[in-house]
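Exercise 7. Given the encoded structure of a 265-residue chain, write a plausible sequence.
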């Protein structure tokens, strides 16, 4: 899902290290929350069935005292599950709920460090306020108008919800792969010697990546025009005979697939 409301965020740690994050906007957070609610729905359904089965004990004359205890346990479990789900999952899953993990989201401190148990507890206690008056209206409004996509619970707890770099990278890779497949480039066999692979620099990779990222949006004619000098650069550096193909764009696409695991860490 391409979410235009996500925002770039730069954090400078106390050690003066710059960290780049992309905050999770209302769309991805809403989907993650919906997934968590579906999980809670299943858990509550099981508890409800348990309570129904226990209530059957009242229909007979056996074990009524045990039925009282079991119903009390069911009520306690219902409270613990619904109030503790978000706190426990975020605390023990490194700032993620199952829904957040599926969407590649994570709760962090404002300084980029892992969320503490106290901050997780605070942000989830204020979930009750964010839910008012209904359907997380206050929380949604605060996220929309926040420069860092924060709901009220995040503002009070000093937390942010970000998109994990790994998830964002995989999403971008799938988008590029889909665009390359639509171009129907000729299938080439491009071999790169290990010694030549080591000669590829960060600047070389940035040049190749910049071209590849234009594949989904750029017209084929212009894409081919830009491919010619870039393909010539790489063929000279890797000692490839560019004459074996009349399609420099196909050559670059194959190079990207060969080299990206070295650079997309």
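Solution.
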């Amino acid at each position: 899902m391409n979410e235009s409301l996500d925002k770039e965020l730069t954090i400078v740690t106390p050690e003066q290290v710059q960290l780049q994050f992309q905050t999770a906007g209302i769309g991805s957070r809403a989907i993650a929350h919906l997934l968590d609610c579906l999980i809670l729905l299943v858990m509550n359904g099981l508890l409800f069935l348990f309570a129904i089965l226990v209530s059957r004990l009242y229909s007979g004359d056996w074990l009524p005292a045990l039925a009282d205890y079991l119903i009390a346990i069911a009520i306690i479990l219902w409270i613990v599950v619904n109030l503790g789900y978000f706190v426990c999952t975020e605390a023990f899953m490194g700032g993620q709920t199952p829904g957040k993990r599926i969407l590649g989201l994570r709760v962090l401190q404002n300084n980029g460090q892992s969320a503490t148990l106290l901050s997780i507890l605070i942000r989830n206690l204020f979930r009750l306020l964010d839910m008012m008056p209904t359907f997380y209206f206050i929380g949604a409004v605060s996220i929309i108008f926040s420069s860092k996509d924060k709901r009220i619970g995040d503002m009070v707890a000093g937390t942010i919800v970000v998109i994990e770099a790994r998830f964002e990278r995989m999403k971008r890779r799938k988008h590029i792969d889909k665009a390359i497949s639509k171009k129907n480039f000729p299938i080439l066999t491009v071999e790169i010697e290990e010694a030549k692979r080591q000669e590829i620099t960060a600047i070389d990779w940035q040049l190749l990546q910049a071209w590849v990222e234009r594949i989904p949006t750029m017209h084929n004619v212009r894409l081919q025009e830009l491919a010619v000098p870039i393909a010539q650069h790489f063929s000279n550096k890797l000692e490839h005979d560019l004459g074996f193909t009349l399609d420099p764009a196909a050559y670059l696409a194959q190079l990207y697939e060969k080299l990206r695991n070295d650079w997309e860490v």
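Remark. The two ends are 22 Å apart (CA to CA). Students should compare their own answers with the one above.
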